[in-house]
Amino acid sequence: MLETASVVKVQQENPMVLSLTLHAPEIAAAARPGQFVMLKSLETFDPLLRRPFSIMDVDKENGDIFILLKVVGLGTALLNNLQETDEISLLGPLGNGFDLDVDAETVHLVGGGTGITPLYFLAKELRAQGKKVVAMFGFESVTALLHAEEFSMLGCSVRIATMDGSMGCPGSIYLLVKREFENGNLKYLYACGPNSLLREVDKYAAAHEIPGQVCLESKMVCGIGACKVCTCALAGKDGKRASVCKDGPVFAIGEVEIDG
Ligand SMILES: Cc1cc2nc3c(=O)[nH]c(=O)nc-3n(C[C@H](O)[C@H](O)[C@H](O)COP(=O)(O)OP(=O)(O)OC[C@H]3O[C@@H](n4cnc5c(N)ncnc54)[C@H](O)[C@@H]3O)c2cc1C
Ligand code: FES
User: Fold this and answer.
1) Closest ligand to 93 CA?
2) 106-252 is a CATH 3.40.50.80 domain
3) CA atoms in the 13 A half-sphere facing the CB of 108
4) Which end of the chain, N or C, is surrounded by fewer C-beta atoms within 10 Å?
C-alpha cells in the first residue's frame, strides 16, 4: 500500500546514521519482521528516488514504524534532510518477511552494519514466542555500533565483533559464527547484512547443514517485482532467477547465489 507518513522523530545515531519514527498506521498494522518499505521524500518528483529500508520495529498501538537509515548516496542524502513534522511517501510493507515457525529452542541472529535492523523486529517476535536468542553483530568499529544494547534489553545474549578490534572479538563476525558451530551451539540462524558477509555465512551454513534464513539488501528500483533490477540466481536451478523484492528479501540458506 502507498501511505503518506508524518515524521514523528529524527534521531542522529552517529554522523552517517539516523533513526526515523514514522507515523504510518496502515503499514504498521500489516508489517511483519523481514519486510521493508520503499521511502521517497516528497521534496522530489523523481520516481527513481524511492529507496528500500527494513522495518526495524513497529508500534501498532500508536501506528508508528521505526527505520534506521545510513547515508550512502543521493537518495539517502535527500532523506537525511527530513525534519520532524515533514511528510514522506511510503510503499509497503513489501517482501515476504522471515518465517518464524522454526523448530529450534535457541536461534542465532547474525547481523552486519545496518543489517541488524530487520533482526530487531525479528528478535522481539522470537522472544515473545519464548525462544532463546543469541545475537551476533559485526561492525567496522565501536563508533559504528548500533542498537546492540536494545537486543540485550529484549533478553537476547549479545556478542560483538569489530573489524578494527575496538570492541568484542577482533575481525569478521563470520569467525563468531564458526566458533558457535564448532562449539555445538548453532542450530538455526537468521542473517542480514552486506552481501560479502551473507555470502560467507550462507556458504558455511549450507556446507555444514545448518538451517536458516538470509535477508538480502540488493539494489532496488521498483520494489514490487516489475523492473528486475534486484534479481539473483536460484542455486542449482539452471539460471532461473528470483526477484529479491518480491520473492525475498528473505531466502532459505543455500536457496540463492549471493553476489557481491
Ligand atoms: C530490503 C532492503 C532493506 C534495506 N534496509 C536498510 C536499512 O534498514 N538501513 C539502511 O541504511 N539501508 C538499508 N538498505 C540499503 C539502502 O536501501 C541503500 O543504502 C539505499 O538504497 C542507497 O540509496 P542512495 O541513493 O543513497 O545510494 P546510491 O546513490 O544508489 O548508491 C550509493 C552507493 O551505495 C551503494 N548501494 C546502494 N544500494 C545498496 C545496497 N542495497 N546494498 C549495498 N550497497 C548499495 C551503491 O553501489 C553506491 O556505491 C536496504 C536495502 C534493501 C534492498
Ligand atoms: S526492484 Fe524492481 S523487480 Fe525488484
Assistant:
1) 1
2) yes
3) 24
4) N
CATH 2.40.30.10 residue spans of the chain: 2-94
Residue ranges, comma separated, of all CATH 3.40.50.80 domains in the chain are: 106-252
Does residue 98 have its Cβ closer than 6 Å to ligand 1?
Answer: no
Interval between CA 84 and ligand 1 midpoint (Å): 23
Kindly give the distance from the C-alpha atom of residue 247 to the centroid of ligand 2, in angstroms, as a whole number. Answer: 10
pLDDT tens digit sequence for 207-235:
999 999 999 999 999 999 999 999 999 99
Q: How far apart are CA 104 and CA 256, in angstroms?
A: 23
Confidence class for position 15, pLDDT limits 50, 70, 90: confident
Q: What is the 3-state secondary structure (H, E, C) of 150-196?
A: HHHHCCCEEEEEECCCCCCEECCHHHHHHHHHHCCCCCCEEEECCHH
According to CATH, the topology of domain 2-94 is: Elongation Factor Tu (Ef-tu); domain 3 (2.40.30)
Q: What is the best residue among 32, 43, 46, 53 to mutate for testing ligand 1's pocket, by most ligand atoms within 8 Å of CB?
A: 53
| Ligand in closest contact with the CA of 96 | 1
Mutate to test the pocket of ligand 2, among 228, 241, 247 (most ligand atoms within 8 A of CB): 228
What pTM was estimated for this model as a whole?
Answer: 0.95
Whether ligand 1 lies within 6 angstroms of the CB of 219 is answered as: yes
Give the ligand with the smallest distance to the CA of 50: 1
115-170 pLDDT, tens per residue? 999 999 999 999 999 999 999 999 888 877 778 889 999 999 999 999 998 988 89
Q: Which of 234, 254, 136, 231 is nearest to 193 (CA)?
A: 136
- Provide the grid cell at 25: 498506521
